[in-house]
Amino acid sequence: MPTIDIVQADITTLAVDAIVNAANSSLLGGGGVDGAIHRAAGPDLLAECRTLGGCPTGEARLTGGYRLPARFVIHTVGPVWHGGNRGEDALLAACYRRSLELAAAHRVTSIAFPAISTGVYRFPPERACRIAVREVRTFLADRPLPEKVVFCCFSAEDLSRYEQALAESPDQP
Ligand code: AR6
User: Fold this and answer.
1) Are 159 and 8 in contact (CB under 8 A)?
2) 13 in helix, strand or coil?
3) What is the DSSP string of 112-159?
4) 23 pairs with which residues across the strands?
5) Residue 35 C-alpha to ligand 1 middle, in angstroms?
6) Are 98 and 74 in contact (CB under 8 A)?
7) Cα 105 vs. chain centroid, distance in angstroms?
8) 118 CA from centroid of ligand 1 (Å)
9) 27 φ, ψ (degrees, to nearest 5)
10) pTM for this structure?
11) Is 34 one of the annotated active-site residues of the chain?
């Protein structure tokens, strides 16, 4: 049975096969979790990212993890929140789905996600959390990999939000 864990941590410290980066479409670094991942991985990560030619919103790209404990970084580009009428929900859902597909294709057994789009990109955190939990549960329901998904929360508020969302039954509205 696949497992879903929730931790409050700096994602760059997690010893999982892959960590997900909430990147921008240039894939050339930025602030927030993106900046932290590039700092911890070292300059070889940026060098590999330069070869990728960017990434559209809602899609994902895989690189090595370099100096990180994680073997891979999966870079995904979340939507900027514009009020909810520009396809933001579907694009955020696609980030989780495409990251998990890429992970499975690379035989990743454990993967950690940050709360994509909820920082600089201003996606409402409660709404983002429900989308994240729904997409991960749906994916894990009929796939053997990854075996473990970790929701890595930076704040205590996010931690309790994810705990609450996971405690609710999947078919609750
Ligand atoms: N570990 C885990 N989570 C973190 C960490 C960390 N080290 N640092 C921040 N968070 P954000 P976005 C949380 O702004 O909204 C960048 O400049 C943070 O508290 O990193 O998708 C990119 O280059 C929040 O809950 O990503 C893009 O330009 C979550 O990570 C843009 O920001 C996401 O916040 C992407 O914005």
Assistant:
1) yes
2) helix
3) EE--TTSSTT---HHHHHHHHHHHHHHHHHT----SEEEEEESSHHHH
4) 77
5) 8
6) no
7) 16
8) 7
9) 60, 20
10) 0.98
11) yes
- Is 58 near ligand 1, meaning CB less than 6 Å away? no
Let me know the angle formed at the C-alpha of 74 by 56 and 173, rounded to the nearest 5 degrees: 80
Strand-pair partners of 150: 5, 112
Which of 120, 122, 158 maximizes ligand 1 atoms within 8 Å of its Cβ, making it the mutation to test the pocket? 120
- How many Cβ atoms are within 10 Å of 131's Cβ, its own excluded? 21
Unique residue bearing structure tokens 């039954």: 169
Nearest CA to ligand 1 atom 24: 119
Find where tokens 């930025």 sit: 30
Q: Whose CA is nearest to atom 14 of ligand 1?
A: 119
Q: Are 14 and 69 in contact (CB under 8 A)?
A: yes
pLDDT, tens digit, 9 for 90 and up, residues 62-120: 999 999 999 999 999 999 999 999 999 999 999 999 999 999 999 999 999 999 999 99
Question: Where does 12-124 have alpha helices with state H?
Answer: 32-41, 43-50, 88-105
Backbone angles phi, psi at 154, to 5 degrees: -90, -30
The amino acid present at 20, given as its one-letter code, is: V
Residue 50 Cα to ligand 1 midpoint, Å, equals 20
